[in-house]
Model the fold of this input.
Amino acid sequence: MNASSTEPLPPWWKKVHDTAQLLASQLNAAVGQASRDGVYTPPPGSPPPRRRRQAASLRHLAEVIRTHRLAPGMSVDKDDIAAVLAGDPRRITDPVLVIAVARAAHQIADLPFTDDDADRLRVASAHVAALTDVARQADEKAPRTVPARLKPVEPPVIDAYFTTRRPRRRWPLVATASGSVLLAGIGTFLVLGDRKSEKPSPPSATETRPAPVAADAECRLGATDDDIIANTPALFDDDRATRLSPTLDFDQMNGSARYARHDGRTYYWGRAGSDDQDPHAGGARIRWSTPDGRWRSCASALATTERGYVHTPAVATTIGGQPITVQICLWRDEPRRENCTQQISNGR
Done:
């Protein structure tokens, strides 16, 4: 089944999707609790990080799984964990990986994880796998559109005959045709000569040209000081905010999207950092759009020498009395890459 297709899912694949998302939501709940209650601890033998690391990030979960051998025989990285938390049927049907993610989250949060908990997840993962097999069989049985076979087209047969009689000579007709060709050539020469002296005319005023794609506008366009808070760390605590899962981590870049309440309003922001061992420049930005569809962008750059996190401004979910759509992105300068959340529309 092609997951990237925009067509509606067949009912058998929709059942697979819904069941996988239900299992993923349970895992995300455990990871979210570990993020709030847990503490980042570097792997044994590794130097302590120069800046505070987020507990239960994709990278932290992968470190815990590898350090404590929670997935024997597997090399688990943050991309594998992200696929499980996203409910990817190709990864969430692996019970060893599913249980390893759950066990790592419980270990970070210092919560018990019993054999019964592992058995329930194993059964749930096997159920998704069984539904996937049924869906594949249904695909094979589903009718397929076969192109109609074209009938061969026979070449037309022209009835013709030949004769051995000597054809008549029609000299007047030949002379007339030759004269017509000569006059046509002279006329063409005169027309081309006139066109060479003409200059190309400019395009008419009614000619339509493709409109350029509008870039994001300035961050505060149409907003007040209360709508967008510039110094996010001065007002919001990352550890007390709700972090969206999965994070925006990729390669050497670390980042996430968060939201919290303030004065009865909800604010979203993003943050960006880079590995201490291999630092890269980049940053985070939050984009927001009003119902008219015009996007603004609020970016915060991350220098290579920065060992902490940089934060974007915090943007409220209602501006000017209207609900807005937000999107948080993490980027790296060289080589250029950007990872963004989905567009979030809630207006709370």
Summary: Residues 328 and 347 are 16 Å apart (CA to CA).
